[in-house]
Amino acid sequence: MNTIKVRNVIIGKGRPKICVPIVAAAQEEILDTAAGFCHLAADLVEWRADWYEDVNDLSRVLETAGKLREILGEIPLLFTFRTLKEGGERSLETEEYVALNRAVAESGFVDLLDIELFTGEEEVVSLISHAHEHQVKVIVSSHDFRKTPSRETILGRMKKMLELGADIPKIAVMPQVTGDVLALLSATLEMKEQYAMGPVITMSMSGVGVISRLAGETFGSAVTYGSGGQKSAPGQIDVDDLARILNVIHESQEHG
User: Fold this and answer.
1) Closest of 56, 128, 140 to residue 92, by C-alpha
2) Are strands 9-11 and 17-22 parallel, antiparallel or unpaired?
3) Whether the model pTM is above 0.85
4) Handedness of CA 93, 95, 100, 105 (dihedral sign)
């Protein structure tokens, strides 16, 4: 499988990389949170800009992104505006969403963008192309906070993400029963073994789905999301606890 290198982090090799989200409204709190993350076992940091109180002021967004870049040093920064319909804090018109992500990609402050699959095919392709022109990698994502779609639907969505040019496809779903977690893990394994040329990200949310956040090395999810304080999704585990568990699993698998 091909890997993706973002700064000094190689996604798709070794144990799943840990991404820690910043979920805060005020710039000062965002920056203070980022400074604290530098002491955690975080491989990547995600700025959830849908939480940001000044997200509609593009100059403030870019100013904050620049300050985050300074604080994080060589820790890769993922920029995400999660829309309300996919579990985020607020909505943006499609034109605003596209303009925000284009500007952030151009800034040189971020290493990855998270673009939602259901933004629209034309918009997703355009944003991926624009990001790649500025050496920014793209995660194309789909989130279902109500249910777990069928295994075939999960696979179909990830294949579509790759068709549109995603560097990394991402699916997050909500389990209603334990069997839903098995469906997600099975789809992940099939995606890894049969369709994806590079890394994928999947997770089953809530307490029932916690095992999916730990089993990426076995089933094929290359990134898992851990909490450095406030959680951005149900079922996230404290980042240091997560790192310890992932390291134990990695060492066990390496030594048979």
Assistant:
1) 56
2) unpaired
3) yes
4) positive
Q: Where are the alpha helices (DSSP H) in the chain?
A: 27-37, 58-72, 94-107, 121-133, 151-164, 178-190, 210-214, 216-219, 239-254
**Per-residue pLDDT reduced to its tens digit, 57-92:** 999 999 999 999 999 999 999 999 999 999 999 999
Report the C-alpha gap between 190 and 151 in whole angstroms: 10
Compute the chain's Rg from CA coordinates.
17
Neighbours of 94 (CB within 10 A): 11
Active site residue 17: no
Q: Are 106 and 134 in contact (CB under 8 A)?
A: yes
Judged against a pLDDT cut of 90, whether residue 192 lies above it is answered with yes
Kindly list the distances between the CA atom of residue 84 and the CA atoms of 14, 42, 90, 110, 255, in Å, as whole numbers in the listed order.
34, 26, 5, 22, 44
Q: Write down how long the chain is.
A: 256
Using the predicted structure, report yes or no on whether residue 50 has a pLDDT greater than 90. Answer: yes
CA of 250: how far to CAs of 173, 214, 218, 254, in Å?
25, 10, 9, 6
Identify the active-site residue in 143, 147, 231, 255: 143
Q: At what angle are helices 58-72 and 94-107 packed, to 10 degrees?
A: 40
Closest by Cα among 255, 225, 248, 256 to 15? 248
Indicate if 147 belongs to the active site.
no
- Give the SS3 label for residue 21: strand
Question: Are 76 and 49 a contacting pair, CB within 8 Å?
Answer: no
> Which 3 state secondary structure label does DSSP give 141?
strand
Beta bridge partners of 163: none
Q: Which of 17, 130, 137, 170 is catalytic?
A: 170
| 86 burial via Cβ count (<10 Å: 0-12, 13-18, 19+) | middle
